[in-house]
Amino acid sequence: MTIPDSHRAPRTRRAATRACATLVALACLTPAALVHAQQPPQPPQQQTRITPNFRDTDLSQVVDAVSSVTGKTFIIDPRVRAQVTMLNSTPMTPDELYEVFLSILQVHGFVAVPAGNNVVKIIPDANLRAVPANDLPERVSSTSDEIVTQVIQVRNVNAQQLVPILRPLLPQQAHLVASQTSNVLIISDRAANVNRIMRIIQRIDQAGDQDIDVIRLQNASAAEIVRVVNSLFSGPGAQPEAPGTATRVVADDRTNSVLISGEPSQRLRMKTLITHLDTPLEDGGDTQVRYLEYADAEQLASKLNEQVQGLVRAAGGAPRG
Questions:
Q1: What contacts 52, CB < 8 A, 6 or more positions away?
Q2: Are residues 220 and 266 in the same domain?
Q3: β-strand partners of 110
Q4: Is the Cα dihedral 5, 11, 16, 17 positive or negative?
Q5: pLDDT tens across 108-163, in order?
Q6: Total domain count for the chain?
Q7: Which of 65, 95, 128 is the last residue of a domain?
Q8: What is the CATH number of the domain that holds 84?
């Protein structure tokens, strides 16, 4: 059937109108789309690096400088006063500067405690036990001087037995308690110290009822460790052991391991001491010289020696009844 021209014309005009509208819409969209497609990818923004140096500078001025760089808000305890000297030639990012700042606070006996919303409180470290702290694994570097609290699940050893053994390995202001019901340890201290204690616990919290414990050393010489341990436990002031319960410590040079036999609680104490002695030097075993401003060096050395003897007594244990 043939369609008359009078009926075909309106349809043709409507189709042409729709086509023109489509072209106009594409013309409006195309420039914006092309501009968006042609934009080059933005390079990642690099952190600003600074080279801070302080010479006999008031601590409040150092805090002000760190606040300007890091964007953190600091609340300073009125007792926080010190003169700071830091000589540096290496450019630092804001995060690196903050880690150095935490070390500066530690040297002067202060701590930085996060208080939420990018606010940090600076207080004397004597108040450490009374302040909240971050958890170690998720939020804080294991080498940081930031104050953290960690709950450690102990699986194969009585957690309460570990407290008197680990206590001498921590500074006086640190907090260490055991929960008898859940057999966990709760420790609050600087992240680096907490991480070190966690590694010690991990190595001594091993399953097994064997009468001989084998400790493979990672940093120290087995023969040297055995010599030191035997001299501590057999030297003057050592507690006598009950008959039939003597503890023996032997070195296996082939595998650089230390073998311990004896009563279980005594083996536990020795394992803790040996693990502590096997700490790598870069984690705090190197020698440091501190010039004292207020204390007498001889009196302080005497007190430090008493603390060392306390560590030895804790490792040796109390006399058995």
A1: 65, 86, 88, 92, 97, 100
A2: yes
A3: 124
A4: positive
A5: 888 888 888 899 999 888 766 556 555 555 555 666 777 788 888 998 888 998 99
A6: 3
A7: 128
A8: 3.55.50.30
Look at residue 200 and give its three-state secondary structure: helix
DSSP string, 267-294: HHHHHHHHHHHT--GGGTTS------SS
Return the closest-CA partner of residue 108 out of 78, 84, 142. Answer: 84
C-alpha 274/C-alpha 82 separation (Å) is 38
Strand (E) or helix (H) holding 72: none
Identify any residues that bridge with 179 across adjacent strands, giving them in sequence order: 184
CA pair distance 279, 219, nearest whole angstrom: 7
Burial class (CB in 10 A: 0-12, 13-18, 19+), 63: buried
Residue 251 lies in a domain: yes
Number of residues written out for the chain: 321
Indicate whether 217 and 271 sit together in one domain. Answer: yes
Model confidence pTM above 0.70:
no
Domain that residue 269 falls in: 212-233+246-278
CATH number where 172 lies: 3.30.1370.120
Considering the domain architecture, whether residues 218 and 270 belong to the same structural domain is answered as yes
DSSP secondary structure string for all residues of 22-78: HHHHHHHHHHHHHHHHHSPPPPPPPPP-B---EEEEEHHHHHHHHHHHH--EEEE-T
For residue 236, what are its two tokens?
A: 């003057």
**Mean of per-residue pLDDT scores for the chain:** 76
Task: Supply 145's token pair.
Answer: 């001087």
Token pair recorded at residue 13: 């005009």
